[in-house]
Amino acid sequence: MKSSGQTNREEAVQTGDLTQVDFSFAFTEGPVSDRAGNLYFTDQPNNAIWKYGVDNQLSLFMQPAGRANGMYLDGSGNLLVCADLYNQIWRIHLPSKEVDTLLTNFQGRLLNGPNDIWTDRSGGIYFTDPYYQRDYWSRKRSEQDKACVYYLPKGAKEAKRVVDYLVKPNGIVGSADGKYLYVSDIEGKKIYRFDRGAAGTLTNPKVILHHVADGITTDQNNHLYLSGNGVTIINKEGRILNYIPVSEPWVSNLSFGGKNHDVLFITASTHLYKIQTNQKGVLP
User: Fold this and answer.
1) CA 123 to centroid of chain Cα atoms
2) Of 5, 134, 142, 272, which sees the most CB atoms within 10 A?
3) DSSP three-state, residue 245
């Protein structure tokens, strides 16, 4: 049996100093890295996706970009994108930038506005669909009766609702081994853990922490990193391990990147930050 001291050392998440990468954006979101460690993130109001390379060079990757919000990388190295302009799910091929539209509606009605996204090892896609009114939408109310978590099986043309009882589901990520799915209910002020089953089903919901969070990411040791008022780091059971203060009005999202996938990138208001950690992110 391990002593409590050993357990605490194993769970310790150490970080360096928070470093500002750039501050010239309207609102940053959706960070995700490729296998080489290059980071992609969105500047949603400016309808752009940016790239921050392992060479520390910042470059515009795509504009227009479907008002991209949350993003993730699939097993083939393509960007999966919550394309907020027309409430769609996109796949962007790297490096050709060719776009496949994977989903445009649910049961013939516009989605609320896909917000965050994660893919499992079989290529199925989970995404959250809260409603945030955008000034570039012609509609003024939701066409869906609920804000839900959806699952789109690989190759399918129709998604299915897998959770329909959260107030406003937002951030989403799977565990390192793929057994669990974590979802932040930003207005319900809760972090949920679900058991993942066949065909994308989610069972045994458990609130692991009462907390307001936007985006979520995880590392190879199943620590969870919650964005919102700074960055709160918890273990898989919801115990708070560490906190990173960020002097911004809001921290929207976060992801690991860098050559060794041990740098935590943080999107916060008009800024992109990075901080060195002693953990490694989960590769697609």
Assistant:
1) 16
2) 272
3) coil
- Could you read off the pLDDT of 121-133 as tens digits, one per residue? 999 999 999 999 9
Secondary structure element (H or E) that encloses residue 11, with its range: helix 4-11
Q: Please list the residues that pair with 126 across neighbouring strands.
A: 118, 151
- Secondary structure element (H or E) that encloses residue 241, with its range: strand 240-244
Please, how many CA atoms are within 13 Å of residue 132, restricted to the half-sphere of its CB?
15
- Whole-number Å distance between alpha carbons of 263 and 276: 5
CB neighbour burial string for 220-242, b if at least 16 within 10 angstroms, e if fewer: eebbbbbbbbbbbbbbbeeeeeb
User: Please, are residues 27 and 270 in contact by the beta-carbon 8 Å criterion?
Assistant: yes
Torsion of CA 215, 169, 147, 84, to 10 degrees: 10
Is residue 36 within 8 Å of 30, Cβ to Cβ?
Answer: no
HSE at residue 133, side-chain half, CA atoms within 13 A, is 6
On whether the CB atoms of residues 110 and 87 are closer than 8 A, the answer is yes
pLDDT digits (tens, 9 = 90+) for 162-177: 999 999 999 999 999 9
Predicted TM-score of the model (pTM)? 0.95
User: What is d(CA 252, CA 155) in angstroms, rounded to the nearest whole number?
Assistant: 30
